[in-house]
Amino acid sequence: MLCGFGVRRLAGKLFDFIAADRGNVAAIFAFALVPLLGFIGAAIDYSRAVAARTSMQAALDSAVLMAAKDLAQGTITTSQISAKVQSYFTGLFTYNGAQSIVVSATYTAPSGSGNATIQATGAGEIKSDFMQIVGYPKLGFSTSSTSTWGASLLRVALVLDNTGSMANYNKLGSLQSAATSLVSQLSKLAAKDGDVYISVIPFEIDVNVGTSNVGASWLRWDLWDPKNYPNASAPYQTYCSGGYWMTYAQCVGHGYSWNHTPNTSNKSQWNGCVTDRDQNYDTLSTAPSSTGTFFIADQDQSCPTAPILPLTYNWTAVNNTINAMTAQGATNQTIGLLWGWLSLLQQAPMNAPAESPTNTYQHIIVLFTDGLNTGDRWYGDFQSTSTQVDNRMSTLCTNIKNSGVTIYAVQIDTDGAGPSAVLPACASDTSKSFLLTQSSQIATAFSQIGTSIAKLHVSR
């Protein structure tokens, strides 16, 4: 250990060395100082160049993502991509001291072997503070970013409210316009046929599976009666002992008696409607294999005019189904959601296209409704909100999300009924829940959903 005298003596010697101007001491120190300053200065200049490159990387990543979204939404063409990337980059790159910035972007169209990409490159330089001493007045840096979309294949179910109140405030027309725009937006994400599939599920109390399924093995006919009214003198009274506007299945489900013997042998009068299947299968995706799991043929007079459309990439068929929708009937969101879920599965009754184990798939339901649940096969008077139907739906929503499906939930409330008690929680997260008050807002909501679904992937 050095004593106080030793420390003073060592300090004195060091001072003598620094102050020395005789012999080789000063020269040695001078020669040593140049590379020492060079190393320190190089570290400082290099760290500034790294910071500039990092800032450029972040700006490029954001710029190509934003340009790709614009392209997917149809707001720019492929010839405008480079200019758009440069414009976005200029607004995003804020590093002070960078010079001679050059940014360019190229677009590669989708092909059978690859997805569409936008690749951007950037380069620049900074003026060095120390490296110029050793002959490097400037330090250059460069980076690149590639945006690829369509890498995750899409399976999207559009579950759309067709109830009577959709006729008000141009809600149905606005929905049809917004939904077809969403179809156009999503279809552009496909590199090839089959990368994007869309199904359409119009619903009210029931869904229409189409009369072409009259012979399907998964249908039940024991609660079906083609006649709902006893005679012309009582046009609003069904054969149900205690309920108006009820079908055979709804009447029995609500605990009433059906005062008619149906002729189930003649199914030619069936309108394609099905109602909720037995509990708890009304909230489960169980494939039909026995009576309890079969789907119950119904004869709802307000059956959706547009039958459900299984997953397809025939965009004309998708748009035709959307445009064929009409407004009638009461609200049972549960049955629409269930069939939306079923449309994403490779099993009866919807038999979705097979999925390759080598690909990644996003399974998505977009639920749109303008009302609150008022009835199903067992509960509700079809006019007032039914907490019991909400409870069935809440269970179903949980089961769907637990299966890995993403749910977007959109409610439009033009009548002041207030937000649904179940829809916000049904959505996968708060960013996927929308409460609208005007028909003009539907287009914006669907556009936001389309942008979210795109889920662009950035790779370097």
UniProtKB/TrEMBL annotation:
<dbReference type="InterPro" id="IPR028087">
    <property type="entry name" value="Tad_N"/>
</dbReference>
<keyword id="KW-0812">Transmembrane</keyword>
<feature type="domain" description="Putative Flp pilus-assembly TadG-like N-terminal">
    <location>
        <begin position="23"/>
        <end position="69"/>
    </location>
</feature>
<feature type="transmembrane region" description="Helical">
    <location>
        <begin position="25"/>
        <end position="46"/>
    </location>
</feature>
<dbReference type="Pfam" id="PF13400">
    <property type="entry name" value="Tad"/>
</dbReference>
<dbReference type="InterPro" id="IPR036465">
    <property type="entry name" value="vWFA_dom_sf"/>
</dbReference>
<keyword id="KW-1133">Transmembrane helix</keyword>
<protein>
    <submittedName>
        <fullName>Flp pilus assembly protein TadG</fullName>
    </submittedName>
</protein>
<keyword id="KW-0472">Membrane</keyword>
